[in-house]
Structures are given as structure tokens and as C-alpha cells.
């Protein structure tokens, strides 16, 4: 057996081990949501339930007062979708400005902001809360949608992607009388679609999975996203008397992101190649 075959074998073995390590807890969580409470506390570890039951999901979906999970799910979809759309608009415009437009202090400003972004996000929690409190956004969707739109990591990706697109395209458009916005909308935007798809997917998942910030800015149960709602479910169900409902709620919470990646997988894989903006 050649060294190349051995390397492939070891790589496949490692990937299978990693896959099993990740998937077994997910399978156990799904199966637990279909167990009765008596089986959960008495049977010990068993990967699959002795009898598949829907009682936990019936209880979850029927609770519209103390734990309106479907309302939380709708809130999360609305917040994450609008946040992602605005992120794409902001980072595409900002990346275009840093990569294509010339102004005094452009690179200094960019790298200064990039350096500041390396500080842990928790450092900004108190100032960010103070700002949204001044604007009156506490306990509203704007507190989740607006902060983080101009993430420097996303802007950096767009800027680097744009550096691989020839400037001759811009110059030809200017000769034909196109302005900056026309160049951005008609020429640049279609070419940077791959990197925008990557940033959009990561922004959606990041907004969906955000936990600490929504717990801080929301107090109204009906306005909470799913992540903040799950914290309430831990108080309601987290005493091992209703662990099946807690697991069922967690499974419901991950369904939208699973569907997103299932439908967007092809585009995501194509978008990994950040050199795909220019063909030929």
C-alpha cells in the first residue's frame, strides 16, 4: 500500500470518526424527544426509544401561553432573514467602497476597524445596550436586526474578492458614462454573488444562533426569538420531569437552519471558490 493510499485511508477514518462523534448526540436528542418521561428516567442510555411517541411534540405545540414556540420560531425567521438581507446590502456597498473607491485614509480606516473587530464581542455588550436603549429599541426586533450589520469579517471577504476582479471593467463602464452606483449595481454586484452567498449563510446562522444578546434585550415572551425562548424552556422543562419536551423544542429550533443548508448546499459549495467571480 502506497503512502498516498495510507494517507487517504487515515483521512477517511478520521472524517468518519468525527462524523460519528457529531451525529450520535443529535440522534440521541431526536430519539429522546420521542420517549415517554418514564422511559427517559428509568431506561438509562439507549440510542432509540422502546416506543416512539408524539406526546412531547403535542404538548410543545399546544402550549401557546408560557412557551409559544411557534411564535418564537416566526420571530427568529423574521429577524434572521431581514438581518441577512441588510448585511448583504451593507457589506457589498462597504466592500465596494474600500476596494474600488479612492479617498484619503481609506486603507488606514479599514485596517483600524479590522483591528478593533478583533476585540471580543462581549466587550461591546454594555455600550451596545446603552445605544439601543437611547434609540428605544429595547424589546423590539430592531435590537437584533441592526447591530452587527457592518461586520468587518464579512467586509474583509468582500474587499478581498473584489481585488480579484479586473479594474478594466469599471473603467470601461465609466467610459460609457456609468456612475459609481451603476457600476456597483450592474457590474460588481453580479460578480460578487458567490462571496455574498457565503456571508449571507453565515450571517443567517449567526443571527439565528445568537443567544446572549437576545436574552439581554428581550423581556416580552411573545417577542423573543427561539434561542431566548429555549432558556425559558430550561426553567420550565429543565428539571428532568419534562426533559422530552425540552429536547423536542431544541429539535424544532434547528429545523430551519437544516432546511436552509439542505436547499442552499449547492450554492454554498460553489461559493467556497472565491475565485469564481470571473470566468474565462
TrEMBL record:
One GO cellular component term: plasma membrane
Keyword annotations from UniProtKB, A to Z: Cell membrane, Membrane, Transmembrane, Transmembrane helix, Transport
GO biological process, one term: transmembrane transport
Membrane spanning residue stretches: 9-30, 72-96, 108-129, 141-162, 183-205, 242-264
Membrane topology of the entry: Multi-pass membrane protein
Entry keyword annotation includes Transmembrane: yes
Compartments where located: Cell membrane
Annotated signal peptide: none
Segments forming domain ABC transmembrane type-1: 73-264
Record bears the keyword Membrane: yes
Main localization of the protein described in the UniProt heading: membrane
InterPro entries: MetI-like (IPR000515), MetI-like_sf (IPR035906)
Family as reported in the entry's similarity comment: Belongs to the binding-protein-dependent transport system permease family.
Name under which the protein is recorded: ABC transporter
Organism: Paenibacillus antibioticophila
Amino acid at each position: 500500500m502506497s503512502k498516498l493510499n495510507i494517507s487517504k485511508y487515515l483521512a477517511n477514518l478520521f472524517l468518519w470518526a468525527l462524523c460519528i462523534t457529531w451525529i450520535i448526540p443529535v440522534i440521541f436528542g431526536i430519539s429522546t424527544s420521542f420517549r415517554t418521561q418514564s422511559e427517559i428516567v428509568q431506561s438509562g442510555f439507549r440510542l432509540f426509544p422502546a416506543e416512539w411517541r408524539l406526546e412531547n411534540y403535542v404538548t410543545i405545540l399546544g402550549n401557546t401561553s408560557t412557551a409559544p414556540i411557534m411564535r418564537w420560531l416566526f420571530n427568529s425567521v423574521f429577524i434572521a432573514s431581514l438581518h441577512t438581507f441588510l448585511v448583504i446590502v451593507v457589506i457589498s456597498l462597504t466592500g465596494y467602497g474600500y476596494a474600488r473607491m479612492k479617498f484619503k485614509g481609506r486603507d488606514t480606516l479599514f485596517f483600524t476597524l479590522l483591528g478593533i473587530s478583533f476585540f471580543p464581542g462581549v466587550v461591546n455588550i454594555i455600550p451596545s445596550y446603552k445605544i439601543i436603549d437611547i434609540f428605544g429599541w429595547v424589546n423590539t426586533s430592531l435590537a437584533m436586526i441592526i447591530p452587527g450589520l457592518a461586520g468587518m469579517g464579512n467586509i474583509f471577504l468582500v474587499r478581498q474578492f473584489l481585488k480579484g476582479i479586473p479594474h478594466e471593467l469599471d473603467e470601461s463602464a465609466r467610459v460609457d458614462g456609468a456612475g459609481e452606483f451603476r457600476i456597483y449595481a450592474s457590474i460588481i454586484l453580479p460578480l460578487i454573488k458567490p462571496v455574498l452567498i457565503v456571508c449571507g449563510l453565515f450571517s443567517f446562522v449567526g443571527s439565528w444562533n445568537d443567544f446572549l444578546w437576545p436574552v439581554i434585550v428581550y423581556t416580552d415572551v411573545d417577542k423573543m426569538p427561539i434561542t431566548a425562548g429555549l432558556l425559558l424552556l430550561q426553567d420550565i422543562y429543565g428539571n428532568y420531569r419534562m426533559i422530552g419536551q425540552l429536547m423536542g423544542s431544541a429539535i424544532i429550533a434547528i429545523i430551519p437552519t437544516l432546511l436552509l443548508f439542505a436547499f442552499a448546499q449547492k450554492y454554498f459549495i460553489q461559493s467556497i471558490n472565491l475565485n469564481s467571480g470571473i470566468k474565462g
